[in-house]
Amino acid sequence: MTEGDIPELVYLPTQRVRHGEPAANLELRRTEDGRTALLGYTSMELLVQGCGPDQPWIAVPAHKLERLYDAGAFDLLALNVELTEDMRHG
pTM for this one? Predict the structure, then answer.
């Protein structure tokens, strides 16, 4: 997938929002080599397929991912990854 293939909106898994919290926190994953990965999905259907139906999420404009990267929020973007059952919200 090239940069031109990324849609205007990207669906990002988040942690569950607890009562009283002002905003969702992105759900980041640690890679085997120690980098921080942000999972991104190019459609809602692919997010459900990759993370399961109970996954909280937010949709963000794709151009904002660069700002998150520049701020050090993540080291790499992993698109349309299918998580194993033990990594999913239940």
Answer: 0.86
